[in-house]
Amino acid sequence: MKALVYRLSLPRVVLAKLLAHRWPWLVYGPAGAVAYTDWPDPVPRGEDWAVVAPRLAGLCGSDIGVIAAHTSPSASPFSSFPAVLGHEVVGVIAQGGARVPWPAGTRVVVDPSISCTMRGLPPCPQCQRGFPYLCQRCTDGTLSPGFLVGFCRDLPGGWAQRMLAHASQLHPVPDGMPDERAVLVEPLAIAAHGVLRRPPAAGARILVIGAGTIGLSTVAALRLLGYDAHVTVAARHGMQARLARELGASRVVSPADLGRAAAEAGARAFRPLIGRAVYRGGFDLVYDCVGTRRSLDDALRLAREGGTVVLLGAAGEIPKIDWTFVWMRELEVVGAVGYGLERVGGRTVHTFDLVLEALAAHPELPVERMVTHRFPLHRYREALQAALDRRASGAIKIVFTPNEGGAPTVSTPRDG
């Protein structure tokens, strides 16, 4: 089968880290770490495994982080390469074992978390509580190291014509739901889990920093889960701002206007001897959906005393962060990653199923408009180029169409 394969190479990593900011073609060109090539067809590993044919597979920020060498080396022991990337997947069961409860032809989204069960091991404490994303044995057992499909050499991800999935990873998609909505279940589940980590109080003043896929998914998740809050979004580009409003943002500002937005949320600005303004008061809850030095600095500065900062932006190594605000204001800084069994409304439900239910119940929320670009696998260089320069491309969510050929398509959100 044809697939996009990431080939780990220390020289390529060093070259990308040192020079790709000047010459991004080092990432997406012939010298890059991704190749369109033949890969062995997946073979089910048992009766509770299925072969899935991806229909759409998203290009995630974490994929770009690995390809462009932005990811912290701290994560390197928990992946194995070469591997077929792609962990945001909607596809069709092409072949299922006897213990797969859905027949061939069933449309599904795939939870990419790799559990102890999949590794042939008894469940660790995190897998027992339903969060294999946090599996403590992600380097052990019968599979190569990896906590996600797409970052494990033994389990090809969705950037291929076929992939493997365990029965526990499969979540059927309701009839009538477009693929463009279903492919967003994974990022929406990340956002929903982040929201559920510290559910906002009624009327809370919330700031979402960043209006890429995770930022917009956070706005959508707040509305899909029914939280009554005033949501301010910091967006860099006009298309992001329009989508943020359509997905339920109360107000959208540019990052340069965050100080004014904080003042409107009740903050008072003070000028220190050196540096940027500091505040008393501010937002009850801040979601950092970018993960850069500036976004984290903004998040810590603009959260009120006793407030909460939720890290959704996959921050890595960030130098020179002023942590004064954390202890001086008694902020709570919360990490959020992945998805699993949530306790919501008196029931236990997987985050994916919760999101699928909410999407079906709210067809008016246009989450599918986050999908702006579609590329066949062999046009991957254009896809990576669009992802690396979103200002020029206007891309929000880029998806591959692994079992389709032809030219890429680009959708432009209407003016709002």
From TrEMBL:
PROSITE patterns: ADH_ZINC. Residues 214-340 form the Alcohol dehydrogenase-like C-terminal domain. Residues 46-175 form the Alcohol dehydrogenase-like N-terminal domain. This is Zinc-binding dehydrogenase. InterPro entries: ADH-like_C (IPR013149), ADH-like_N (IPR013154), ADH_Zn_CS (IPR002328), GroES-like_sf (IPR011032), NAD(P)-bd_dom_sf (IPR036291), Zn_alcohol_dh (IPR050129). Belongs to the zinc-containing alcohol dehydrogenase family. Pfam families: ADH_N, ADH_zinc_N. Coiled coil: none annotated. The keyword Flavoprotein does not apply. Keywords: Metal-binding, Oxidoreductase, Zinc. The keyword NAD does not apply. Its cofactor is Zn(2+).
